[in-house]
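Two proteins, back to back. First:
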Amino acid sequence: MHKKLSLFAAGLALATAAFAEDLAPFPTWSDAYAITKGPHEHLLASYFAINSWSPNNRYVTVLETDLNGRLPEANERCTLGLVDLQDNNKFIPITTTACWNFQEAAMAHWIDDDTFLFNDVRDGKFVTVVMNWKTKAERILPLPVSAVSEDRTWAVSINYARLSLTRPDYGYAGPGQDAREDVEWPEDDGLWVMDLKTGEHKLILSVAQGRSLMPATKADPSKPGHPLAYYCHTIIQKDKAGSHIFFLARSVDWFDKKIHKASRWHTTSFTVRKDGTELRRCFKDGWAGSHFNWAPDGSPKLLVTAAWDGHVKGEWARTAWSPVEFTVGEEEKVRRIGAGVLDWDWHCIYSPDGKFMSGDTYWTANNERPWVLVRLADGMTMPMGAFFVPEPYRQTYWRCDLHARYRPDGKQIGFNSVHEGSRQVYLRDIR
């Protein structure tokens, strides 16, 4: 485990005995147990922090594939199905999709017990499919989803073809959208909002509109490609109105789409309202931004992993990062979580009651992924284990991040892992 985490764990028993009575006690967790198995590999069908359980908690959305060791190619499909938790974890294949990857999967979201949505390719275009999984009846919406509102009435969309130019582990291969590859700061692409009933959509913020608040790019004649800016990684505030959208704005100085290489990212964390107004930077220059989660109570409060000291030599430099918490409109009051002990790039998510932060991260020198639980009131940290990563899963594009997410009632947490030798889906019960 990371050296700082090991030192912190050593003093955990003493610290636990001293915490005040009015602080929430740490929950107890079961050991991890698999709900999928070979010979196929499986992963949860959406990005970290996104709910995978049906509203009745019986089914979990999962992708099934035999692919490993490379990126999915254009129109290469995998199976989207459900694990029935009340029938011996039976896997029920429902459909297939060609819009998927090992990080965000197919961005599946539940609408109700009978209906979920996911991204797919139809007639050569990246779209959203809204499907009744029992009858297989479906509706096609014209843009793929990147985030869905709490009331399941609207979604944010981005350009996954453009994202694939610099982040093929998050974008979709193929010409399903116009990547606008030759335009550095497009005025006709960026953040889109789409009605999930009608499919009506609107560009609320172009990439060009963010230019004045983003770091300048610099062309490198010795490299292929050219500077390119884009938006990615979106999430909607959990209030009824979906008042704010958090997203990352990134740019690169060059990219080589043939070998999937690019310069280091220049990242800015933003929030914006649903109508495209009140675009706000979350942090000072150099703080960048990585993983994120809105507070579950609907308030405009966020957990984000950021470069606390503002000096990132390369955005993959893990020790420069720290989870922080802040409220939109009060960005100057940003609070560091973990007092320096947690300086790393965590997938930080709130527990459903908002009292704890679950954090999982990248593998250490021991090839293990640490997982911690942090009580937000005082920053006390509990180690949740470390999960071994076999060598075939240590490559960037087809790595297996834990990507934990809570069941909405807080009684389970699900994650992906390869610690038993293949990519499978696991649960832990929370007591």
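And the second protein:
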Amino acid sequence: MENTPIFFADGESPKIIDAFRKAQETFKYFWRELSWEYRRIVPALDVACVKLAFTQEINGNTVVEHMWINDINFDGEKIKGILVNDPDELTNVTNGEYVEIPANQISDWLFVTQDKTYGGFTIQSMRSEMSETERQDHDAAWGLNFGDFDDILVAYEQKEKPENLTEHPMSKNMKESLLEFIKANPNELTAQDEFGYTFLHREAIAGNSTIVEVLLESGADKNAKTHNNKTPLDFAQELKWDHLVPLL
């Protein structure tokens, strides 16, 4: 993920700007969870959305609006999905439109599973300024329980199992079935999609070290490059998946 700061509109409070920063730093956990969600037979997530800064030059001014998208995909550089908000001022994007936005324009992310919310940094920043009654009304409007605004979770059961911050439990659990899959489909190790991404690239972006180890041991090429000249190691370093760097 590029570290270039995005231009945010004047008048954003320091608290909200801090929330943007935390959302960008932890977005990798959102994508890791979603990458597994897309493989589940029975869905586990009730909500999965990302808030992005959309910009447009209007009458000589840069206008910024932060809006949510869903149906998300992520290639290590751009967030892709469907806009689910109506813009207030912007005319260069509309509700229901497919968009591709650089990852440095993330302003928040949120996923919900088993009645717990993860992420939602800007939401919790706003809730911190509300009275208890206002918070209850806010949560009722969303139909979600956002819990303690001072205690934001980023990974499933991270308190009970701190190791989940390093690796998703499904990465470990899927090891044997992955070995069988590769044995039956050896071409998957070298196959590249239309943008040059391999299986190894995608797993490096999602931070799945057990899967990455299996792929490397099975003969995946760690020097394979996307059409943008990125290796799996490049993505691991940019996303700060430190546990993958020695493997790659």
